[in-house]
Amino acid sequence: xxxxxxxxxxxxxxxxxxxxxxxxxxxxxxxxxxxxxxxxxxxxxxxxxxxxxxxxxxxxxxxxxxxxxxxxxxxxxxxxxxxxxxxxxxxxxxxxxxxxxxxxxxxxxxxxxxxxxxxxxxxxxxxxxxxxxxxxxxxxxxxxxxxxxxxxxxxxxxxxxxxxxxxxxxxxxxxxxxxxxxxxxxxxxxxxxxxxxxxxxxxxxxxxxxxxxxxxxxxxxxxxxxxxxxxxxxxxxxxxxxxxxxxxxxxxxxxxxxxxxxxxxxxxxxxxxxxxxxxxxxxxxxxxxxxxxxxxxxxxxxxxxxxxxxxxxxxxxxxxxxxxxxxxxxxxxxxxxxxxxxxxxxxxxxxxxxxxxxxxxxxxxxxxxxxxxxxxxxxxxxxxxxxxxxxxxxxxxxxxxxxxxxxxxxxxxxxxxxxxxxxxxxxxxxxxxxxxxxxxxxxxxxxxxxxxxxxxxxxxxxxxxxxxxxxxxxxxxxxxxxxxxxxxxxxxxxxxxxxxxxxxxxxxxxxxxxxxxxxxxxxxxxxxxxxxxxxxxxxxxxxxxxxxxxxxxxxxxxxxxxxxxxxxxxxxxxxxxxxxxxxxxxxxxxxxxxxxxxxxxxxxxxxxxxxxxxxxxxxxxxxxxxxxxxxxxxxxxxxxxxxxxxxxxxxxxxxxxxxxxxxxxxxxxxxxxxxxxxxxxxxxxxxxxxxxxxxxxxxxxxxxxxxxxxxxxxxx
Length: 716
Fold this sequence. Notes:
- By secondary structure, the protein is α/β, with parallel strands linked by helices.
- 37% of the residues lie in helices and 21% in strands.
């Protein structure tokens, strides 16, 4: 089949609908009784936060297309209007499923173990007195009732704020007139309020405000009250070509973003039709953008609930302590790297060596320069602290801070200013491109001359997310990679255009071309009758060119195994095209975030890690890196990790030809949760690479290596 044939709309799944299917897999974890109860509650909250961001960004993007008359169909043949209709239909079903899960499953199960969310009207005695005092002493002084009439226009409703809508009747009104008013639930106060007593009893902030709302409107009668919430367009429209100061432009756009167009209106399910129509008119939205909620609006309150309950060890995942190999405590990290490349698999391996890499660079008198890219960092980042210390100690410190990292813009502007004040050279990347690569370079003077030490990774330099995201990192002092790393930083900070790179591959465009060539090599091998395999792991697959290349590989007889956590626009089971392509998705305790691209290569097993997913934005509009695993034992380890993940039958869903996802049938099979396996075997797998061998290793001929766990996960 020709390449043009692979461009037919029938060969693709719509990206937005594929994302909704991913969020449904997250929601499925909330319904899975094999998960501890409070973890199920957290998964439901995650499905809400995912959905909020989806409306903030993806639905907003579709709306902009419609508003400017852009009607070109996507790869799946759907126009923006058709996508909005399909999204509305699927999300309405998802919301119903979310609240069915909450009301029919999770809340009753919580009540059975003594965790209850009460209505204030149900309370008595000490608890009622507490709520009464809380309202009058803590809430009443900060609440602001906002009436709407000829002299007071409808107020601005901020993104994701909780608001109480009211219809009031005053004695002076004629003809049964109803007056509208709102009260914003203060987001400066905790939404989940613990009640006094020996149990885990709570009330929600908005329910307390509603209970006493009559005190805010003395002389009026409340005829109706109902909660509502809006989701706005939170995209940034930054014109970098005309922005003389990118940081100021970002700050200005952040202020404008707060007043973006409304994308979604959530209302309580029992809100009257007249009030609903009034809000729809004020928000300038369509009826399809209204979501009637049968329960508390915004399920992210469940995160606060989980954090506030007393100790419940049986209701959460067993604690998992990341493994820190003794070698990182026994000697300088630079000496460790000189002895051989070092591979880390987070969160199973500790993130501490990455932080310590920057720390030791900051205090080592032999270190001359530190260069680093930062996309997302934590609010109290130790890496920022050590970069500032390095500058204070006279090192040449250059930091690329990506100001356009979505929803981290404000945080990154703050850190950029902090680093500049400390004496670091701060750069903001290339015009029109986000810098998404994860790269740190340390230049050190040693007896035999200057040596460059690098850390490259699939995930962010964020010590918080490193505990819950699965990512991979590599330390190396390979001279060719060092030269490439220097070229990348020179390209980012100046006008350098390196003619070639020795080992690293960069985007825009370079990674797409490089992977396409590797796929072509496998296609040639398959057509020649030789063994041909492609193993890829990523967050999302939506780039049409890469999908066409994978279709060509499948049609040629290459066996393609894809591990994709989120979006997958590729279809499986297409006759003579994708029958050799299998797609698995693992959604579990940890968020799968690492990117692996591996090729059989006539038995040579070429393996690469990357910061890039196979999405058009990553391959064409971002600075990304792809780096090879050159050391034999590390390459075997990465391939083994992939093989083990492919064996998972506990948290894996398999893509079906109709674009649905189904769990693996475990009848007659031993349950295997790969994430739990990695937690239990982190020490053993690290020992394989760093030594000494402290664990017994059982090797299975013809298959992936299986490590025998000698200790419980919580003791690792």
